[in-house]
Specification:
The chain is mainly β. The protein has strands at residues 9-13, 17-23, 32-37, 45-52, 70-77, 88-92, 95-101. Helices cover 0% and strands 40% of the residues.
């Protein structure tokens, strides 16, 4: 049984944005979902969910199974807040690229009294 974290991910700081790259070979784009989770008083997180179909093995007996199949879910904490509405996700050659624009610091608004 494989006990490592899956899918494997790398998170990069690219100046004005964060880029998450996840290894998702063998998974079709329509079987993947990406969401930014924001919980009060905790860091933003990216949630990856999906499903990898099991390849047909009819007539064969498996001697080794190291590849994972079925549903998966992985949360990756982010070092800074991001704008959830600017997230762009692309699947290329088995890698999921998720680009997230960093959120700027909140702007203070003066409250006027009448």
């Amino acid at each position: 049984m494989v006990t490592s974290v899956w899918p494997r991910c790398s998170l990069y700081d690219a100046g004005e944005k964060l880029v998450l790259v996840a290894e998702l070979a063998g998974i079709e784009a329509h079987n993947i979902s990406v969401a930014v989770i924001r919980v009060h008083n905790s860091p933003d997180r990216v949630l990856l969910r999906g499903f990898r179909q099991h390849e047909a093995t009819d007539g064969f007996e498996a001697h080794r199974r190291e590849r994972r199949f079925g549903a998966f879910s992985r949360e990756v904490p982010l070092p800074v807040p991001v704008w959830a509405d600017t997230v762009l996700a692309r699947l290329r050659r088995g890698l999921l690229w998720v680009e997230m624009k960093k959120a700027t610091e909140p702007r203070m608004v003066a409250v006027e009294a009448s």
